[in-house]
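In this supplementary section we document a worked example of the pipeline. Step one takes a protein sequence of length 280 as its only input; no multiple sequence alignment statistics are reported here. Step two produces a three-dimensional model, which step three serialises into C-alpha coordinates for compact storage. The input and output of this example are shown verbatim.
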Amino acid sequence: LAERHAQPIFLFVHTVDPHAPFAPPESLRARLAPAADPARGTMAYLARLAAKELPVDAATVADLHALYGAEVAFADAELGELLAALRRAGRYDDALIVFLSDHGEAFHEHGVLGHGWDLYQEVLRIPLILKLPGRRHAGRRVARPVAQIDVAPTLLAAAGLAGGELPGAGLLAPSAAGERLHVAYLRYAGREGISVSDGRFKLILPLSSSFAAGAELYDLDRDPAERHNRLFDHPVRAAYLEAAARRALGARRDGAAPVTLSDEERTRLEALGYLGGDAR
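The serialised model returned by step three reads:
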Protein backbone atom coordinates (compact mmCIF):
# COMPACT_ATOMS: atom_id res chain seq x y z
CA LEU A 1 0.00 0.00 0.00
CA ALA A 2 2.84 2.37 0.82
CA GLU A 3 4.65 1.64 -2.45
CA ARG A 4 1.57 2.27 -4.60
CA HIS A 5 0.27 5.34 -2.81
CA ALA A 6 -2.57 6.94 -4.79
CA GLN A 7 -2.23 4.35 -7.57
CA PRO A 8 -4.92 1.77 -8.36
CA ILE A 9 -4.26 -1.59 -6.74
CA PHE A 10 -5.65 -5.09 -6.97
CA LEU A 11 -4.90 -7.19 -3.92
CA PHE A 12 -5.68 -10.91 -3.58
CA VAL A 13 -5.26 -12.25 -0.05
CA HIS A 14 -5.58 -15.98 0.62
CA THR A 15 -5.21 -16.81 4.31
CA VAL A 16 -5.42 -20.62 3.90
CA ASP A 17 -6.53 -20.81 7.54
CA PRO A 18 -8.95 -21.90 8.84
CA HIS A 19 -7.87 -25.19 7.31
CA ALA A 20 -6.32 -28.47 8.32
CA PRO A 21 -3.93 -28.87 10.01
CA PHE A 22 -5.73 -27.00 12.79
CA ALA A 23 -2.78 -25.28 14.44
CA PRO A 24 -3.75 -21.79 15.62
CA PRO A 25 -1.17 -19.53 17.27
CA GLU A 26 -0.55 -20.66 20.84
CA SER A 27 -1.86 -17.40 22.30
CA LEU A 28 -5.24 -17.92 20.63
CA ARG A 29 -5.33 -21.63 21.38
CA ALA A 30 -4.68 -20.97 25.06
CA ARG A 31 -7.44 -18.35 25.17
CA LEU A 32 -10.10 -19.88 22.92
CA ALA A 33 -9.37 -23.62 23.03
CA PRO A 34 -7.55 -24.19 26.34
CA ALA A 35 -8.94 -27.69 26.86
CA ALA A 36 -8.31 -28.90 23.31
CA ASP A 37 -5.50 -31.35 22.61
CA PRO A 38 -3.33 -29.73 19.89
CA ALA A 39 -2.26 -33.18 18.64
CA ARG A 40 -5.79 -33.77 17.39
CA GLY A 41 -5.42 -30.97 14.87
CA THR A 42 -2.37 -32.44 13.11
CA MET A 43 -2.58 -33.95 9.63
CA ALA A 44 -1.36 -37.29 10.98
CA TYR A 45 -4.18 -37.47 13.53
CA LEU A 46 -6.80 -36.29 11.02
CA ALA A 47 -5.61 -38.92 8.54
CA ARG A 48 -6.07 -41.65 11.16
CA LEU A 49 -9.58 -40.38 11.84
CA ALA A 50 -10.35 -40.41 8.12
CA ALA A 51 -9.01 -43.96 7.85
CA LYS A 52 -11.23 -44.98 10.81
CA GLU A 53 -8.17 -46.05 12.78
CA LEU A 54 -9.37 -43.85 15.66
CA PRO A 55 -12.90 -43.31 16.97
CA VAL A 56 -14.64 -40.00 16.34
CA ASP A 57 -16.13 -39.41 19.77
CA ALA A 58 -17.67 -36.30 21.30
CA ALA A 59 -14.38 -35.23 22.90
CA THR A 60 -12.56 -35.43 19.57
CA VAL A 61 -15.22 -33.40 17.78
CA ALA A 62 -15.21 -30.78 20.56
CA ASP A 63 -11.42 -30.42 20.33
CA LEU A 64 -11.44 -30.10 16.54
CA HIS A 65 -14.24 -27.57 16.66
CA ALA A 66 -12.40 -25.50 19.26
CA LEU A 67 -9.11 -25.56 17.33
CA TYR A 68 -10.93 -24.62 14.13
CA GLY A 69 -12.65 -21.76 15.94
CA ALA A 70 -9.29 -20.45 17.12
CA GLU A 71 -8.06 -20.53 13.52
CA VAL A 72 -11.15 -18.56 12.47
CA ALA A 73 -10.30 -15.97 15.13
CA PHE A 74 -6.72 -15.80 13.84
CA ALA A 75 -7.85 -15.21 10.25
CA ASP A 76 -10.34 -12.62 11.49
CA ALA A 77 -7.61 -10.73 13.33
CA GLU A 78 -5.28 -10.80 10.32
CA LEU A 79 -7.98 -9.50 7.99
CA GLY A 80 -8.74 -6.84 10.56
CA GLU A 81 -5.12 -5.69 10.29
CA LEU A 82 -5.50 -5.41 6.52
CA LEU A 83 -8.65 -3.29 6.83
CA ALA A 84 -6.90 -1.11 9.40
CA ALA A 85 -4.00 -0.61 6.98
CA LEU A 86 -6.43 0.47 4.26
CA ARG A 87 -7.95 3.00 6.65
CA ARG A 88 -4.53 4.34 7.66
CA ALA A 89 -3.66 4.75 4.00
CA GLY A 90 -6.92 6.62 3.37
CA ARG A 91 -8.06 3.98 0.87
CA TYR A 92 -10.77 2.14 2.75
CA ASP A 93 -13.74 4.34 1.83
CA ASP A 94 -13.09 4.02 -1.91
CA ALA A 95 -12.14 0.35 -1.80
CA LEU A 96 -14.22 -2.49 -3.19
CA ILE A 97 -13.70 -5.47 -0.90
CA VAL A 98 -14.96 -9.04 -1.23
CA PHE A 99 -14.68 -11.46 1.68
CA LEU A 100 -15.56 -15.10 1.06
CA SER A 101 -14.50 -18.71 1.54
CA ASP A 102 -14.32 -21.68 -0.81
CA HIS A 103 -16.09 -24.10 1.54
CA GLY A 104 -17.18 -24.76 5.08
CA GLU A 105 -16.15 -27.63 7.33
CA ALA A 106 -17.96 -30.69 8.64
CA PHE A 107 -17.60 -31.72 12.28
CA HIS A 108 -19.40 -35.05 12.19
CA GLU A 109 -22.88 -33.52 11.83
CA HIS A 110 -23.56 -36.17 9.21
CA GLY A 111 -20.91 -38.71 10.12
CA VAL A 112 -17.84 -37.20 8.42
CA LEU A 113 -15.10 -34.72 9.24
CA GLY A 114 -13.54 -32.13 6.94
CA HIS A 115 -14.85 -31.33 3.48
CA GLY A 116 -15.08 -32.90 0.06
CA TRP A 117 -17.11 -35.89 1.19
CA ASP A 118 -20.70 -34.68 0.99
CA LEU A 119 -23.02 -31.82 0.03
CA TYR A 120 -24.59 -30.80 3.32
CA GLN A 121 -24.98 -27.19 4.43
CA GLU A 122 -22.10 -27.22 6.90
CA VAL A 123 -19.78 -27.53 3.90
CA LEU A 124 -21.72 -25.58 1.26
CA ARG A 125 -22.64 -22.47 3.25
CA ILE A 126 -19.91 -19.83 3.34
CA PRO A 127 -19.57 -16.16 4.27
CA LEU A 128 -19.87 -13.77 1.32
CA ILE A 129 -19.54 -10.10 2.24
CA LEU A 130 -19.11 -7.20 -0.18
CA LYS A 131 -18.05 -3.70 0.78
CA LEU A 132 -18.61 -1.22 -2.05
CA PRO A 133 -17.07 2.25 -2.43
CA GLY A 134 -18.85 5.06 -0.66
CA ARG A 135 -21.11 2.84 1.46
CA ARG A 136 -23.21 1.88 -1.56
CA HIS A 137 -25.81 -0.74 -0.63
CA ALA A 138 -24.54 -0.66 2.97
CA GLY A 139 -26.42 -3.12 5.15
CA ARG A 140 -28.23 -4.74 2.25
CA ARG A 141 -28.75 -8.49 2.41
CA VAL A 142 -29.34 -10.66 -0.65
CA ALA A 143 -31.91 -13.24 0.37
CA ARG A 144 -31.89 -15.43 -2.72
CA PRO A 145 -29.39 -18.29 -3.21
CA VAL A 146 -26.01 -17.02 -4.40
CA ALA A 147 -22.67 -18.64 -5.20
CA GLN A 148 -19.01 -17.83 -5.81
CA ILE A 149 -19.64 -17.60 -9.56
CA ASP A 150 -21.72 -14.49 -8.83
CA VAL A 151 -18.66 -12.57 -7.61
CA ALA A 152 -17.04 -11.87 -11.00
CA PRO A 153 -20.14 -10.39 -12.69
CA THR A 154 -20.82 -8.38 -9.52
CA LEU A 155 -17.34 -6.84 -9.57
CA LEU A 156 -17.60 -6.03 -13.25
CA ALA A 157 -20.98 -4.37 -12.73
CA ALA A 158 -19.58 -2.34 -9.83
CA ALA A 159 -16.80 -1.15 -12.15
CA GLY A 160 -19.28 -0.26 -14.88
CA LEU A 161 -18.14 -3.06 -17.17
CA ALA A 162 -20.20 -5.65 -19.04
CA GLY A 163 -20.05 -9.23 -17.83
CA GLY A 164 -20.20 -10.74 -21.30
CA GLU A 165 -20.77 -14.49 -21.25
CA LEU A 166 -19.68 -15.03 -17.67
CA PRO A 167 -21.75 -17.51 -15.67
CA GLY A 168 -23.38 -16.30 -12.50
CA ALA A 169 -25.61 -13.34 -11.69
CA GLY A 170 -24.66 -9.88 -10.48
CA LEU A 171 -25.75 -9.21 -6.91
CA LEU A 172 -26.20 -5.45 -7.18
CA ALA A 173 -29.16 -5.42 -9.56
CA PRO A 174 -32.71 -6.13 -8.32
CA SER A 175 -33.49 -9.82 -8.20
CA ALA A 176 -34.68 -11.18 -11.52
CA ALA A 177 -38.20 -12.52 -11.66
CA GLY A 178 -38.60 -16.25 -11.27
CA GLU A 179 -36.84 -18.92 -9.30
CA ARG A 180 -33.07 -19.26 -9.17
CA LEU A 181 -31.49 -22.57 -8.33
CA HIS A 182 -28.20 -23.11 -6.55
CA VAL A 183 -26.21 -26.08 -7.84
CA ALA A 184 -23.24 -27.71 -6.10
CA TYR A 185 -21.23 -30.57 -7.56
CA LEU A 186 -18.95 -33.05 -5.81
CA ARG A 187 -16.37 -35.31 -7.38
CA TYR A 188 -13.63 -36.41 -5.03
CA ALA A 189 -11.89 -39.66 -4.06
CA GLY A 190 -14.35 -41.79 -6.01
CA ARG A 191 -17.41 -39.97 -4.67
CA GLU A 192 -19.66 -38.08 -7.05
CA GLY A 193 -22.88 -36.24 -6.34
CA ILE A 194 -24.84 -33.08 -7.07
CA SER A 195 -27.19 -30.92 -5.04
CA VAL A 196 -29.78 -28.40 -6.19
CA SER A 197 -31.58 -25.92 -3.94
CA ASP A 198 -34.30 -23.37 -4.61
CA GLY A 199 -33.60 -21.62 -1.32
CA ARG A 200 -36.12 -23.62 0.67
CA PHE A 201 -35.93 -27.18 -0.64
CA LYS A 202 -32.62 -28.88 -1.36
CA LEU A 203 -32.11 -32.16 -3.20
CA ILE A 204 -28.92 -34.19 -2.80
CA LEU A 205 -28.53 -36.69 -5.62
CA PRO A 206 -25.79 -39.36 -5.35
CA LEU A 207 -24.03 -40.21 -8.61
CA SER A 208 -21.76 -42.96 -7.28
CA SER A 209 -22.25 -46.06 -5.16
CA SER A 210 -19.92 -44.74 -2.45
CA PHE A 211 -22.75 -42.64 -1.02
CA ALA A 212 -24.42 -44.67 1.72
CA ALA A 213 -27.74 -42.84 1.40
CA GLY A 214 -29.92 -42.49 -1.67
CA ALA A 215 -31.49 -39.25 -2.83
CA GLU A 216 -32.30 -36.80 -0.03
CA LEU A 217 -34.69 -33.83 0.06
CA TYR A 218 -34.57 -31.31 2.89
CA ASP A 219 -36.81 -28.39 3.82
CA LEU A 220 -34.14 -25.90 4.84
CA ASP A 221 -36.65 -23.45 6.31
CA ARG A 222 -37.93 -26.01 8.80
CA ASP A 223 -34.88 -28.26 9.01
CA PRO A 224 -31.70 -26.21 8.46
CA ALA A 225 -29.57 -28.96 10.03
CA GLU A 226 -30.79 -31.45 7.38
CA ARG A 227 -31.92 -34.15 9.79
CA HIS A 228 -35.21 -35.23 8.19
CA ASN A 229 -35.31 -36.54 4.62
CA ARG A 230 -38.61 -35.36 3.04
CA LEU A 231 -38.10 -37.02 -0.33
CA PHE A 232 -41.40 -38.89 -0.22
CA ASP A 233 -43.35 -35.99 1.31
CA HIS A 234 -42.71 -33.68 -1.65
CA PRO A 235 -42.40 -35.89 -4.76
CA VAL A 236 -43.23 -33.12 -7.26
CA ARG A 237 -40.62 -30.74 -5.87
CA ALA A 238 -38.09 -33.59 -5.72
CA ALA A 239 -38.72 -34.50 -9.36
CA TYR A 240 -38.38 -30.86 -10.42
CA LEU A 241 -35.06 -30.45 -8.62
CA GLU A 242 -33.77 -33.77 -9.95
CA ALA A 243 -34.53 -32.69 -13.52
CA ALA A 244 -32.64 -29.45 -12.88
CA ALA A 245 -29.74 -31.42 -11.44
CA ARG A 246 -29.56 -33.66 -14.51
CA ARG A 247 -29.52 -30.63 -16.81
CA ALA A 248 -26.77 -28.96 -14.80
CA LEU A 249 -24.76 -32.17 -14.75
CA GLY A 250 -24.97 -32.52 -18.52
CA ALA A 251 -23.83 -28.95 -19.05
CA ARG A 252 -20.93 -29.43 -16.64
CA ARG A 253 -19.66 -32.60 -18.29
CA ASP A 254 -19.98 -31.10 -21.76
CA GLY A 255 -17.72 -28.22 -20.73
CA ALA A 256 -15.19 -30.21 -18.70
CA ALA A 257 -11.50 -29.88 -19.51
CA PRO A 258 -8.51 -31.84 -18.19
CA VAL A 259 -6.16 -30.16 -15.73
CA THR A 260 -2.41 -30.79 -15.56
CA LEU A 261 -0.60 -30.09 -12.27
CA SER A 262 3.01 -29.01 -12.01
CA ASP A 263 5.31 -30.80 -9.55
CA GLU A 264 5.15 -27.78 -7.23
CA GLU A 265 1.34 -27.68 -7.32
CA ARG A 266 1.14 -31.40 -6.64
CA THR A 267 3.53 -31.10 -3.68
CA ARG A 268 1.51 -28.25 -2.16
CA LEU A 269 -1.76 -30.16 -2.56
CA GLU A 270 -0.23 -33.26 -0.97
CA ALA A 271 0.90 -31.13 2.00
CA LEU A 272 -2.69 -29.97 2.50
CA GLY A 273 -4.02 -33.52 2.31
CA TYR A 274 -5.72 -33.25 -1.10
CA LEU A 275 -3.54 -35.83 -2.84
CA GLY A 276 -1.86 -39.03 -1.75
CA GLY A 277 -2.60 -41.34 1.13
CA ASP A 278 -3.74 -38.56 3.49
CA ALA A 279 -6.29 -37.16 1.03
CA ARG A 280 -9.38 -35.96 2.84
